[in-house]
Amino acid sequence: MTTNLTDKNGTPTPTRKEGVKMAGPAKPAPAKKDGSFEKLVKYLQEVQAELKKTTWPDRPKLIASTKVVLGAVIVTGLYLFVIDWVLTQVMGFFIGRAGR
Fold first, then answer.
1. Rounded distance between C-alpha atoms, residue 45 and residue 27, angstroms
2. pLDDT attached to residue 30
3. Most exposed among 66, 77, 83, 98, judged by the fewest C-beta atoms under 10 Å?
4. pLDDT of the chain along its 100 residues, tens only?
5. What are phi and psi of 30, to 5 degrees?
6. What are the Cα distances from residue 9, in Å, to 2, 3, 4, 12, 16?
7. How far apart are CA 86 and CA 97, in angstroms?
């Protein structure tokens, strides 16, 4: 069975016969089977190469960033403490009142 197709201009396009296989995507080459030790060595070599590309902060930048992180942790901890305390008091009020 053939199908008649036309393009935008109305001219017929070549037909395709049923049962003809079209070329699919190329299959990747089979991967080389490395042992666990070889994989570990390769991974550590790649880690070492990436660490060489890293730019590390100098001491003043590191100290400033540490202060910012510690400040954010303290503020967040205090905020959560206050919210927890308020909700505990509210729930205690309702639970204590319901028990009467």
1. 29
2. 67
3. 98
4. 555 666 677 776 666 556 666 666 777 766 666 688 999 999 999 999 999 999 989 999 999 999 999 999 999 999 999 999 999 999 999 888 776 5
5. -60, 135
6. 20, 17, 14, 9, 20
7. 17
pTM: 0.48
Tokens 């080389």, located at residue: 32
The residue type of 80 is L
User: What CA–CA distance (Å, rounded) separates 100 from 98?
Assistant: 6
